[in-house]
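Can anyone check this?
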Amino acid sequence: MKKSIFNLKNKSVGDIELDTSIFGIKILPDLIHQYIRYQNAKSRQGSHKTKTRSEVSGRSKKPFSQKGTGNARQGSNKPPNFRGGAVSMGPVNRDYSFSLNKKEKKLALKSALSVKVSEDKVVIIDSFEIKSFKTKDLFSDLKQFKYKSALFIHSENGLDKNFKLASSNIPKISTLNQKGINVKDLITFDKIFIEQKSINEITKRLL
């Protein structure tokens, strides 16, 4: 699959061949959804906690006599029906994460990349190096790509310091090392800008 390479001025500077086994596979919406659930579950803190009967402060002694008061019998003032008592069946600390095997993760990433390529939302950029660190200069260049939100995927040392400074103040823009590509970000952002060098690294990892 042939794809044009652009510079940050939105001018074509060449072509690149994309591996169809990664960027052109049959899209699997169910697997994409499963991967996003996996990401969301993994990021949940799970530190919610309410006190049980053994943890609330109170007396374990019977609050009143077993008989003769006209009230229901009680063993202590710690049950949920007492003011200041425990919470019945309340939340406890837990881990929400679940596992996906490597094949599922790879296939979900390939599906997400294929979705973006099929929608023409992937832009291959030759380099993220810019001369000026001024936000307005980069913003005027990026406006030509007509995006709603954008994710810039770069190689290990591919993110220019000036680009990082200039893009930090532009809304709805994020940068990501190619090692950290994930389905949620690929689907969430409108356009995906991938550094040319990163294409080879992503391809090598997902083959």
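Reply from J.R.: I decoded it. The mean pLDDT is 93.
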